[in-house]
Write a structure and sequence with these properties.
This protein is of the alpha/beta class. It has 13 helices and ten strands. Strands 1, 2, 3, 4, 5, 6, 7, 8, 9 and 10 form a ten-stranded mixed sheet that branches.
Length: 311
């Protein structure tokens, strides 16, 4: 049995997957296996995996069913005590697993373990994360996980670990969600128990602007994700805050896609006291102005300037 099972869903990532795998194999902590589930790739991704000579790698192939099914299948096939997830286009620094282990050793009763990370917005522009809580250099338990999680996500699908047995207790990834299944998992862990955080930066997250790729079906999934927790948020003000921030983001997506009716529906469910001044203004702006602002943001990112609704 391995200490970690590194889980990777793979679909058409031939440009990135070799770097991703090498970043795992170069870890200073070496007690791990790698389980890759190819979700029906049609490019050269699988051949690249097969060219890597390592006994640690196990490749499983499935017809295309989405990342949730791929991750669940990988975890079911794993033999590690802890699961460390990684997307096939992100990269770990060589201390990632050792820092996760340090977090686990410090707070063994936590249910989710996270490390800090940087965000690659394009090849020449990397930004730091910004979280809604205070931390120093040492591992800690996050006092109010949902409130702390409203700027950048504290957990990501490439920066966390959790016990396999805890994952199974909360029924894993929701296979009804084609997007946001990782966020759904973090919510379930947040409701289950304590979340531990290691401030050490150990991962590079390749950020892609998903707005242009969004469609009404995927936004329906995002709405379903939020709606799944309407009962719990009634008695959990921090969860309500977190979900309202997600509602705000979804309303902006709807407007950018010209789905005004759907945007109005989501906005009605938001407690506006949970939004900051800038978010309140943006949520109420007409779609044409939001489209212009989005184009401006993309232009500024190309100039290595990043502005968000939290600044």
């Amino acid at each position: 049995m391995s200490y970690f099972s590194v889980i990777i869903p793979l679909f058409n990532k031939e440009k990135y997957v070799l770097k991703t795998i090498k970043s795992i194999l170069n870890q200073t902590f070496q007690d791990f296996e790698i389980i890759i589930v190819d979700d029906g790739s049609t490019d050269n991704s699988v051949n690249i995996i097969k060219s890597i000579k390592s006994e640690k790698i196990k490749l499983i192939k499935q017809v295309n069913q989405g990342a949730s099914v791929a991750r669940n299948n990988a975890i079911n096939a794993s033999n590690g005590t802890y699961i460390a997830t990684l997307d096939s286009d992100d990269e770990w620094q060589n201390n990632h697993l050792s820092e996760l282990k340090k977090c686990i050793t410090s707070f063994s009763k936590a249910v989710l373990f996270c490390t800090n990370y940087n965000i690659k917005r394009h090849n020449a522009f990397i930004t730091n994360t910004k979280f809604n809580f205070q931390f120093d250099q040492d591992c800690l338990i996050i006092d109010d996980f949902f409130k702390a999680n409203i700027i950048n996500f504290i957990p990501t699908s490439s920066s966390v670990a959790f016990k396999k047995e805890d994952f199974l207790k909360i029924n894993g990834y929701n296979t009804n969600l084609r997007t946001g299944q990782d966020i759904d998992l973090w919510i379930k862990f947040g409701l289950m128990g304590a979340i531990a955080f290691n401030p050490k930066t150990t991962m590079l997250y390749n950020y892609y602007d998903q707005t242009s790729l969004s469609n009404s079906n995927y936004n329906e999934d995002r709405y379903l994700l939020i709606s799944n927790y309407k009962l719990q948020e009634k008695d959990n003000a921090s969860l309500k805050l977190y979900l309202d921030i997600n509602r705000y983001a979804l309303a902006i997506r709807y407007k950018l896609l010209g789905q005004t009716k759907e945007a109005k529906k989501v906005i009605k469910e938001i407690d506006f006291s949970n939004l900051n001044f800038k978010q309140k203004i943006l949520a109420l702006l007409p779609a044409n102005i939001l489209v212009y602002l989005k184009k401006t943001q993309r232009f500024l990112i190309k100039k290595n300037i990043y502005l968000s609704a939290f600044k």
